[in-house]
Amino acid sequence: MGDSQNLLAEQRRALILDEVRRRGGVRVNELTRRLNVSDMTVRRDLDALARQGVVEKVHGGAVPVPEATAHEPGFEAKSALELRAKEEIARAAVAMAAPGSAIALAGGTTVYALAQRLVEVPDLTVVTNSVRVAEVFHNARRPVGGSASAARPGAATVVLTGGVRTPSDVLVGPVADAAIRSLHFDVLFIGVHGISAQAGLSTPNLAEAETNRHFVRAARRVVVLADHTKWGAVGLSSFASLAEVDALVTDSGLSPAARAEMAERLPRLVVADGTEEAAGP
Fold first, then answer.
1. Across 199-221, average pLDDT
2. 26 strand-pairing partners
């Protein structure tokens, strides 16, 4: 029952967030009628969304957060959000990395969750600009034969790019860009600050946007990992259009309307509740 209630709460909050962004604000009494729940339930949902920083509570309802498109939360702050969704997405996405392939892992807490599962995929070559992701693979290289310099069989080979470190603990800038330009990846796994039909994939950090563009150009397949709260958000700089995305892996909190739109625009949409909606281009 607890899991069912949590799932329903996530879906309900996604609907509320969609409504806030679409209409520019909502009132509690309107939401109680539309969602057929109590006033207290709606207020708890608004409290939860406010803690995530995606709405601002006002008297009688909520409005979108007047956030600057250039605001970039730190890694620790983002790590505390949507933990269950990130785990579901990571569990669904790990199957897209074939043993022995060359993959790129960009920054973000959802990609970090995926990295912790990828350590079990044998013989990967991993290129990343995320300090946190590199640490996951470094810690997983268990010594064999008593030698501290030896790694367990099948452990990933990891290349960490250089560059300037951002609040999200990724390395960006000309050094990272030059390294990525010289490489080719079977698949790129990338997180986003926001995803929308109009702005595509976006981030609040200009230098990170440029580095992400190079990642996208260097990959045969681009897989976006984004929980439902990223839908409709727009950062300062777009780095890829939806036409450049091969697959989106998201969680079950994504609203039906957003699912339908993404299914129309993307070759593959994977919802981490076990369903897959393929369509589009």
1. 93
2. 62
Name the 3-class secondary structure at 228. Answer: helix
Closest C-alpha to 212, from 181, 243, 247, 250: 181
Calculate the alpha carbon distances from 244 to 124, 221, 239, 281 in Å.
Answer: 24, 9, 10, 11
Spatial distance between the Cα atoms of 193 and 188, rounded to a whole number of angstroms: 16
Query: What does the block give as tokens for 79?
Result: 């790590």
- Split at pLDDT 50, 70, 90, the class of 149 is low
The tokens describing 133, both together, are: 């992701």
**Tokens matching residue 201:** 């994939």
pTM higher than the cut 0.90: no
Per residue in 166-185, pLDDT tens? 877 899 999 999 999 999 99
DSSP label of 258: H
Q: Residues 28, 58: contact at Cβ < 8 Å? A: no
pLDDT at 191: 94
Residue matched to tokens 């034969």: 145
Query: What letter would DSSP give residue 96?
Result: G
- What confidence tens digit (pLDDT) does each residue in 77-136 have? 445 455 788 899 999 999 999 999 999 999 888 999 999 999 999 999 999 999 999 999
Sheet with 102-105, edge to edge strand ranges:
157-160, 125-128, 102-105, 185-191, 219-225, 247-250, 268-271, 275-278
Strand, coil or helix: 130: strand
Bridge pairing between strands 125-128 and 102-105: parallel
Whole-angstrom distance, CA of residue 274 vs CA of residue 253: 13
Chain Cα centroid distance, residue 117: 15
